Amino acid sequence: MKGRVRPLLLCFSLILSVFATSGFGNSFAATTTTPTTGGASGLSISPLRQNITLKPGQATSIPITLKNITGGPIIAKSAVKDFESDGVTGNPKIITNPNYNDPASIKSFLVGLGNVDLAIGQQQTIQLPVQAPANVSPGAYFGLITYQAVPNDATKKTANDNVALSAAVGQLVFITVPGNVSQSLQLNAIHVYKDTDGNSEGGLIFTNPPKSVGVQIHNFGNAFATPYGTVVIKKGSKLVYSYQLNGGITRGLLLPNSSRIFKSAVKNITTPGHYTVQVSATYGKGSTILTAQKSFWYMPIWLVVLLVVIIILILIGLWMLRLRFKKPGKTSYKK
User: Fold this and answer.
1) What one-character DSSP code corresponds to residue 28?
2) Mean pLDDT in residue range 272-279
3) How far apart are alpha carbons 202 and 195 in whole angstroms?
4) How much is the pLDDT for 4?
5) Rounded Cα distance, 263 and 169, in Å
6) Residues 42, 33: contact at Cβ < 8 Å?
7) Pairing state between β 169-177 and 49-53
8) Which of 22, 61, 84, 290 could be a cystine partner for 127, CB 3.0 to 4.6 Å?
């Protein structure tokens, strides 16, 4: 039994490693690996993301192109993974509890999911049938369709007598069921970071120029949201830098009932002084505007040292003046 569990745990950990580098709005990177035993076994997949709208009972199909990029025949074993937002970066977090009934799962929409046989170097496009249940409620549904490459050769075994497994590749699927859906977003906070990746948040004073800004938004609705807008950085009334919030060809999604911090690198903060980050964002049809601002000081070390020296000199000067103008006290003598 232990021999069967170990390769599955390895496979699952590799899926999680792919998720860790992918946001909902970014391309979901196709992953290929070479197993340690049993020969090479890997896949490529495209497209990496599907967005579809289905009314209750309506059917369609989504294209999935798989390619065997190894030197042997394989079976692409299919599966569906439910996930949720990590609540911070927007990266998916797989739901591992087998007893959890995810109300946003796409599993009930997939009516023809199956395995695919691929010969050496073969590329095949399948049309995966998708149908919305007749009684499905309006709202957002999402999941990850994964394919696991397994050598199509019973003689290729691992040391534990199990078929060698590779990392999975996956396609993110987002399904919208129209109807009585709500979009209600709230701009919760603005974060200013010391580093480009947005891992180290600063405070009120920065001794080095901030490298990135994060805008934290929460979706209270039951539908997908794609907030967008403008972020500007000013020094006084002077515009220092600006960028489009959640810009790009494919905007990042905000899942229902979840938060996400939209991060972006910033520049041009070069001179000491007081700066203000101003955010203006909207979503949906653009009828609601979300605004917020946050201030910080950029004070290089040399300036901090100079200010400390000046303060010390002022205090010394005041002390010396006090000594100079201090009136001598009267002395009484007893006879």
Assistant:
1) -
2) 96
3) 9
4) 43
5) 26
6) yes
7) parallel
8) 61
Q: What CATH code would you report for 2-177?
A: 2.60.40.10
Q: CA triplet 186, 188, 192: central angle to 5 degrees?
A: 140
Residue 147, both tokens: 């394919």
CB 152 within 8 A of CB 21: no
For residue 99, the cross-strand partners are none
The answer to whether domain 2-177 and domain 185-300 are alike in fold is: yes
Lookup result for tokens 């745990």: 9
Task: State the Cα–Cα distance between residues 176 and 184, nearest whole angstrom.
Answer: 16
Structure tokens at 108: 């009930």
Q: What is the DSSP annotation of 171-194?
A: EEEEEEE-SS----EEEEEEEEES
- The closest of 33, 40, 24, 118 to 78, measured between CA atoms, is 118
What is the identity of the amino acid at 26?
N
Superfamily of domain 185-300: Immunoglobulins (2.60.40.10)
- Rounded to whole angstroms, how far apart are CA atoms 289 and 258? 19
Strand spans (E) along 82-115: 83-85, 92-94
Phi, psi of 227 (to 5 degrees): -65, 150
- What's the confidence (pLDDT) of residue 269? 95
Tens of pLDDT, residues 27-48: 333 333 333 323 344 889 999 9
| CB crowding 277-286: b at 16 or more within 10 Å, else e | bbbebbbeee
User: What is the distance in angstroms between the CA of the first residue and the CA of the last residue of the chain?
Assistant: 108
- Which sequence spans correspond to the domains of the chain? 2-177, 185-300
242 CB contacts (<8 Å, ≥6 apart)? 230, 231, 232, 233
**CA–CA separation, 275 and 277 (whole Å):** 7
Query: What value does the mean pLDDT of the chain take?
Result: 82
Instruction: Give the residue ranges of DSSP H helices in the chain.
Output: 2-19, 301-324
Q: What is the pLDDT of residues 161-184, one digit of tens each?
A: 444 456 789 999 999 999 988 889
With b meaning 16 or more CB within 10 Å and e meaning fewer, what string describes 229-253? bebebbbeeeebbeeebbeeeebbb
